[in-house]
Amino acid sequence: MKKRIGVYICHCGGNISDYVDVAELGKMFHKEENIVVSKDVMFACADSNQKDMIADIQANQLDGIVVASCSPKLHLHTFRNVAIRAGLNPMNYVQVNVREQCSWPHSDKPREATVKAAGLIRAGINRVIHSESLDNIEVEIKKSVLVIGAGVSGMKAAIELANNGHEVFLIEKEFSVGGHVGQTGKVFMTGQDGRQIVDKLYQQIKSRNNITLFTGAVLEKVSGSLGNFQVEIKVKPRHLNAANVNQVKVDERMTFIVGSVLVATGFDHYQPKAGEYGYGQFPQVITLPEFNQLMDKSKGELMCQDKPVGSVAFIYCVGSRQTKGENKYCSRTCCNAAVHTSLQLKEKFGNIRAYHLFRDIRTYGKHEVMYEASCRQGDVYLKYEEKEMPLVSAEGKQLLVKVKDYLTAKKEIEIPVDMVVLVTGMVAREDSTRISEHLKIPIGNDKFFNEIHPKLKPVETVIKGVYIGGSCQGPRNISESVQSALSAAAKVNTLLSKDTISVDPVIARINPDACIWCGKCADVCDYTALKEVEAGGKRIAAVNKAVCTGCGICAPVCPENAIEVAQFTDKEIESMIDGFTTQFDIPERQQEAEESEQDAVTQMKEYPQVWKEILAGMTNEQNTIPQIAENSKLSKELVTWHLMTMNKYGIVQPARMDEKELYFYYKVKNH
Amino acid sequence: MARVNPDFVSELYKYGEKDFSACYNCGNCTAICSLSTAESSFPREMVRYTTLGLEDEIKSSLKPWQCYACGECTTDCPRQADPSELMMSLRRWLMAQYDWTGLSGLLYKSLPLSLVAFVLTLAGVLFYAMQHQFNLEHLMEVGHLFEMVAIGSVGVVILLPNIARMWYFTILKPGVKVSFVKYVKSLGELFVHMFTQKRALGCDDNQFRWFEHFILVLAYLSLLFTTVFLDWFSTESLFVHVLGYVLSGLVFIITVDFVRHRIQKKQAVTKNSQPSDWFFVVWLLLMGLTAFLVKFFQDMSWLESNKWLYIFHFTILVQWALIIVPFGKWTHFLYRSFAMYFEKLKG
Q1: What pLDDT sits at residue B234?
Q2: C-alpha Rg value of chain B to the nearest Å
Q3: Nearest residue of A to residue B23 by CA position?
Q4: Which of B73, B98, B123 marks a domain boundary?
Q5: CA distance A144 to A212
Q6: What's the CATH architecture for A604-668?
Q7: Which residues of B fall within a CB distance of 8 Å from A372?
Q8: Residue A652: pLDDT above 90?
Q9: What residue segments make up the domains of chain A, in order of their start?
Q10: Domain termination site, one of B77, B98, B119
């Protein structure tokens, strides 16, 4: 129970005080017991007022403060800092929002706005009476990180983290590193070989003592939380040669402790369904990644089914942008990849004709130059629509692609080709659900991992200490993947560079006497913050302080009412409700003032001199403010101000607007 | 259902085309064109047909003839794909398709072959003149006769069948039903466009170019009439006398201006001159010039001692009548006006 409370009610320079009777409220709370200081101030957030508040707190030994001003989103931390500077625990500060919740929305009803503000302030005072002093929770951070996935993104992030002096565990499901890039030939724009890029990164990893790379390794179990994750991995045995191929080898299990986890598990190529554009039906129909590998392996002449290839049709958006199918998104990399392949095709094998059956060409950014080069080298582009998909059929030893070309007045076009290449998009890894179950990373409708906010928190997940980067977040090309992986690495680095991290103390608390461990709270918790523990000879729930976000979802489901959230205890909330419903006696001053002004106008025997001058200046039906000002020899500002009042009481009214000058024409309505 | 023909593009390159494959189908060319309409839009459509090699569609289309090469599409093309040049190349290709002899195509595609044709005709004239001991009187008589015979036979043997083929490709084969009355009623369109090129006035920048062309056409046709039917070289009438001088002078002056434009390459229409374009304007210029000089020398009684001048004029005349008129650019005079006529029939 606080006995020495300070209440500050802000005018916000008229934003609040124009409608809410701030002066009256200031006086009203002065009479209450427990309240030592009660003031109305012009700007509560002003430096001078902050200094006054600190002086008040220290001089009067205040144990709780309430500021009634704007939204806590704007100034909660401002006044918490005031409390800290005055030596008061910041949790004993309560902000009441009388601007966004009273003066702004109820500007038409000033008296009701004042009543509502009084109720809210009363609730705030009641809350601060019951508030507890709380300190931030300090969590120890282990100086190591687990990076999942050794593709370019994961490798690059691991190197970056190792360079910053952290212990890195890099695990890769396959037996070789490099992921998809490791299987790619030349890449745009540098023309480097994908394998060279991977090899370079691999050499860098090998040369760093603080990176431990496990290949053939998968995540088995994760427990713990921010700063202290216990990770268990399973390393598959490998059969490297004929000698040990028959030996029975068992999976090796390993555990280690890490402070943070960075997920860079990448993507899978979309695998066309049997019969999709003749895939699996005709051997000449293959996917773009398969075609790239075929090109890579071929020397001199491109062969398919022992026949030289003279023409290729690329069908775009296979497995992407399916308005009725699973993958509604655009995979964004495939147009570029297909156009790049088409350029490579000409460069390596000379005169092979390429037909591109696209839905929309999205060679964004610098890739546009490839598209132009492809057009100029004579590649033929035809546009199809999803509702009329191209048909692939056999014609002798060739394939025949039929397409309705939307660029040529929807004419049906037949294209005889030797090969059809399906430009497949990116899909989420098949085992991403397994990773998500271990780490609790949310998965979107598109099955890729979800960040908290695509723009403002692009690599953070709702699980503290777990970050995502690369194409496990959604389709992206190599440079975009590396960018996001590096920004995830930067976030991990920020986390690991401290010994401890402060976590907000607003979290759930268990009453061990009441708890009977039914498990309902653990079921609803999105963050797995609740665990069953043994305490005092019985099984109860325990909150992991580092993981709990204080969302409060567990409190209402508890049948024993054994959970409460700090700062939102039953006592506080109930007292706030009591406070808000208290009856107040507020004099109807403002409304009276309005009415008396109206009376004054209606009872006027004569208009004031200045109104007379303005009316005299309104020579015809249509007068603009500059004209009236000139006629009546008054300033434009004065005329504007008085016209508004006269308009309010129906003496003049705006007739119409001058479109060009944006002035209203005024006319005399009622003399 | 139409089948792509990737070889068509390389064929068209031989007719002067080079950049159109850069096109990314934005349609700016069609939007900017002052002659393109919602009912009959170009050049983007022709670009697509060319890209896909849809020869039948191109052959049945009159759109290449509806373009008068103001070059705005080329100026505004964001990919520098030069649609105006594509339309020109398509017109050359179409002329080759209409020509039943196939010689037009050969001459358009091959400069050496064209040069051989010009040399052979020169040799023919010289050989004939030699056989007749360079008898000026005889040669001038034969020259006059040749003009009449050439006009008649080229018209009947080459040009008429070619127009018929054009009609077949654009009207009959696509199955356009036209009543006889309409054929007659629409004839006005043919003659208006043949003698005025009225449609070219619709191009934004074209007024002076159109005026020059208009005067040239009238002067050329009148000169032809004056020499062939009024027998300018041996007339007694002072009017015909002066008329011939004025007309040949006009032809010469305007073609000099046309040649100047082709050298300066400032307009889209003159930027990429093909050999066929050069032959056309230069031979027209030489016709005007030599006709003027022959008559002048004759009037000054210098011609007897300068027989070479008449033989030169005669050679130009023969080359004009046997190469450029039936198989060269001259035919655009007919195809453009018939295209407008056929378009009227389709409408």
Answers
A1: 84
A2: 21
A3: A375
A4: B98
A5: 11
A6: Orthogonal Bundle (1.10)
A7: 22, 24, 79
A8: no
A9: 5-134, 144-266+429-496, 270-426, 504-566, 604-668
A10: B98
Is residue A614 very low, low, confident or very high in pLDDT (cuts 50, 70, 90)? confident
| Nearest Cβ partner for A414 among B1, B25, B45 | B1
Q: What CATH superfamily is the domain A270-426? A: FAD/NAD(P)-binding domain (3.50.50.60)
Distances (CA, A) of B197 to A171, B215, B224, B258: 77, 11, 19, 17
Tell whether B261 and B135 lie within a shared domain.
yes
Split into its structural domains, chain B has a count of 2
Q: What angle do CA A511, A517, A518 make, to 5 degrees?
A: 125
Residue B2: inside a domain, yes or no? no
B242-284 pLDDT, tens digit per residue, is 999 999 999 999 999 999 999 999 887 888 899 999 999 999 9
Amino acid identity of A15? N
Report if residue B1 sits inside a domain. Answer: no
Residue of B58, B87, B92, B65 whose CA lies nearest to B74:
B87
ipTM of the shown complex? 0.90
CB contact under 8 A, B2 and A413: yes
pLDDT interval class at A663 (50, 70, 90): low
Higher pLDDT, A604 or A651: A651
Q: Note the CATH number of domain A144-266+429-496.
A: 3.50.50.60
Q: Which residues of B touch A412 (CB under 8 A)?
A: 1-2
Neighbours of A478 (CB within 10 A): 21
Put simply, whether B40 touches A (Cβ < 8 Å) is no
Contact (CB<8Å) A372/B24: yes
Tell me: do B302 and B267 sit in the same domain: yes
Whole-angstrom CA distances from A422 to A338, A357, A517, B296 are 9, 10, 55, 75
Q: Which CATH number fits domain A504-566: 3.30.565.10, 3.30.1490.100, 3.40.50.2300, 3.30.70.20?
A: 3.30.70.20
Q: Which two tokens stand for residue B156?
A: 């009947």
Q: What is the residue-averaged pLDDT of chain A?
A: 90
Q: Sort out which chain B residues have CB atoms less than 8 A from A361's CB and list them.
A: 24
